[in-house]
Amino acid sequence: MTKGEATQTKVHYKGQDEDFIIFVDDISTYKKWQSDKSVPMAHFISTFKVFVTHKQGNQGQFDGASQATLENEFGTHTDDEVIKKILEEGSLLESQFPERQGPKNDAQQGSIVTGQPGTR
What secondary structure letter does DSSP report for 28? Predict the structure, then answer.
């Protein structure tokens, strides 16, 4: 994998008051889980944490959802139940991040000032 190249997969659930996000590591296992619930969620979920985007869709700043927010939207604040509902009813989104271009180590190219005090 080249520098900076990455794939991010998440499941987005549009709630009444908030947008909820779950990060998924293994898409094929997630798709298998959709038809066979005996597959453990721990095999494909990145972290058992629900994120909210404050009505910014599937983008914006991801903050951890409070228990009150989960209770208001899903009727429970139990993470396993909420995550299961988001995974069942949400939409899968995959984002590709391209590799970065540019120098590998700026310090070796003499572009960084070498400890000289600045003038103000």
Answer: H
Listed residue (97, 89, 67) closest to 22, CA to CA: 89
- Contact partners, residue 110, CB within 8 Å, separation at least 6: none
- The pLDDT of 24-28, averaged and rounded, is 89
Average pLDDT, the chain: 80
- 50 contact partners, CB below 8 Å, separation of at least 6: 20, 21, 22, 64, 65, 70, 79, 82, 83, 86
φ, ψ (nearest 5 deg) of residue 72: -65, -40
Return the SS3 of 22: strand
Distance between alpha carbon 67 and the CA centroid of its chain, in Å? 19
Q: What pTM was computed for the model?
A: 0.70
